[in-house]
Amino acid sequence: MGNEGMREKLLKELSEGVVEYDEERVKKASNEVLDKGLNVYDAVMNGLAAGMEKVGALYDQQEYFVPELLMCADALYAGLDILKPHIRLEDLGDKPKGQVVIGTVQGDVHDIGKNIIKMMFEVAGFTVHDLGRDVPLEKFVEEQLRTDAEIVALSAMMTTTMMGMKKVVEMIKEKNPNVAIMLGGAPVTRDTAGLFGADGYAESAGNAVQEAIKMISRLREMQQK
Amino acid sequence: MAAMSLKERFWNRFTGKDTDMTPVGSTTTYGVMALMKKCGYERPAADTDPVAMTELALAGPAYAGFEWVKAMGWDITAISEVMGCTLGTPKIDLQYFIKAHPYAESIDGLSFPKDFAKRGRFPAYKEHFRLLKEKVGDKMVIFGESEGAFTCAANLVGTEQYMKWCMKEPQKVEKVLEVTKEAAIAAADFAFENGADYYVFAEPTSGPALLSPRIYKKFVLPVEQEIFKRIKGPGVLHVCANTDPIIELMCDTGAVGISIEEKADMKKAVELAHKKGVKVFGNVSTAVTLFQGTPEQAYEESRQALENGTDFLCPGCGIAPNSPLENLLQLKKARDDYFGA
After folding, report:
1. Is domain A99-224 given the CATH code 2.40.40.10 in the classification?
2. Does pTM top 0.95 for this prediction?
3. Chain B, 4-33: which have a CB under 8 Å from a chain A CB?
4. pLDDT digits over B195-232, tens only?
5. Using a CB-CB distance cutoff of 8 angstroms, which residues of chain B are in contact with residue A160?
6. A112 — contact with chain B (CB < 8 Å)?
7. Which of A21, B178, B183, B275 could form a disulfide with A71 if both were Cys (CB 3.0 to 4.6 A apart)?
8. What CATH number labels B6-338?
């Protein structure tokens, strides 16, 4: 099999392995990518990440739900663990890369949606600074300033904790109006996100995946201009 | 028809008899700060102290126009606490929440404690029920509420892990549910023995925001069916988010009523539920309308719920602590106007 044929075969294995949450299949294909000396970044983006985009679409169509997403995420990380250390700087070319600060706001310990969106940013090549859950509000501002991240993604699952997001948006915009802030979580609506002064919104864990993809595209467009 | 007593109105509707009008109230939590201010009893005392808990419960009917009373506090963590979950500290505007999952590493040693009702907040609930019954008498219906078996199971091992087990380790899912099912039955029977007229299981973790209908049918439905069959009084099932895909399954659990959010289609839910003899509670938006909306919006959404045929005009979920009282009052106002009361 020629190099291109091998590339196609392994990308398909990686992508399908993620969609069908088959960790072993993903691991095997990832190791083969290394053995054959193929472009590792290509394997991550057009294999693993492409699979995850399909997973996002399946979630949107209500074919997949959160348990499936979590299983797919495990398969994805199984591949990333093998491939990521081998990504060479020159493979990245002139692809725009960015940084994201992400976390669930103070008083809130729900982090499934946050972890899923974190993963989407990671596969898209962003550097993710995950502050975890129950994060003090000022920590988001500090981390954004420390890292100069382009995106801050906040999650809250309770009406009591969502008000904290408004404060974070205000604090960050005051220091740096160019940061894109996205909000997500059960009680948050697009209207609320707008009202709080945020730039992006995700309706639920699954929509967060889609919104993350959209925000990444928007940012890429912005950065390519 | 002559105006009915509040208890008769509720009970007639609940049992499928004629009523003068649709009952209005809340079948989910109403630990609202405006009600705390009115009655003078605040959280966190109202989370554990029987007197404060009782007074806040009575503030619902006294100040928000609710026609029945909630017992057993303002959160859905009581069973999980008894089973070993660590809880976060409640504040005036923050209910108890799950902080740590005791069986995240291993489910060996997980068992149903025989002295269940002597643990956690249940002794306080016992005294609270006594006080509540003393004050309410036969005037209003009282209901108890806690998390259901599936939500409790996810709390015990961690929701993320439990979701994955649903896909790859079904025997573990069932093993935990076997235990939490007994706990759920014990909690409901405790409430019935102490004066509850009906019991609500809140199952946020089993909803379509997380689980597929296929998994709901496989793991949740059989357990709920057994629970509703075995408990000593009538049960209501509350599930959050857009429950459209599982309305029929919810109705098949054996619950007398289902409680749904505004994200679900009330009209369709009523249609499906009534075919199976099940009542529907809901569905005024709590996170958006009651919390952040205007009184006009709350009124309009209440009217819409009545128009769509709700059997009990209620908030669609637990009412957010910071919701203005004026918004809550719109439920009764809309109901009274609708029926020309």
Report:
1. no
2. no
3. none
4. 999 999 999 999 998 999 999 999 999 999 999 999 99
5. 93-95, 320-322
6. yes
7. A21
8. 3.20.20.210
